[in-house]
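Folding Problem: From Residues to Backbone Shape
Fields: amino acid sequence; protein backbone structure tokens
RECORD BEGINS BELOW THIS LINE
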Amino acid sequence: SYSYLAELLDPEELSELMNRYYASVFEPVVRHGGLVSDVVGDSMMALWVARPDDPWNGTQACLAALEISACTEEFSNISVCAPLQTRIGLSGGQMVLGHLGAASHFEYRAVGDAVNSASRIEGLNKALGTRILATRAVAMRTKGMLFRPMGIFLLPGKTQPLEVFELVCPLDAATLEQKRFCALFAEGLRQFSSEQWPEAEEIFQRCLEEVGRDGPSLFYQALCRKHRELPPEDWNGVVTIHSK
């Protein structure tokens, strides 16, 4: 992480490392028509803005996200320091671009629920052990991508639950095994939402047997065991995450 590297490296070394890291992150964004709007610490926000004559879809953002994930994984493998865990959140919707601040300090940035949602699901990656998560708004408006449903979550700072999906790969590059695995996991989610805890737990175990370690399967398997011991009241299928 950035804080760990800040302790490990002197300021000049950290600056050089982060510049090389951001070079690997920025390039896919720009090449796929995005705009880097904000950088704080080891976090970056990129925007894909729609025009009135060109309705927005998430294809380019998804392609950039997949390339960023691949590039940063390679970057971490060749780094002499601890790997930088790059997690990505993709969200779509209306936002406002403008200057924020007061007195002598202003910043130009995007503001809106879509921005907040992207930040929240980026953090959800840590709980699920995933790399790229997207909201339903992105998944439903993006063609040619394989998404795995992750469920419905009430995230910190949100008043309304979000349906979340994992971006897996371009559809034309997906193997039959990947498609079958996503379908099996989706069936596990359906059983989970229907309060069929033993059946859901069994399906998530099958998922683990098929691919080895899988963060979302482990996450839901643990929840199934918890709900079997203490069934939730007023169950509505929404998983509440209490910490960022």
Notes: Residues 1 and 84 are 6 Å apart (CA to CA).
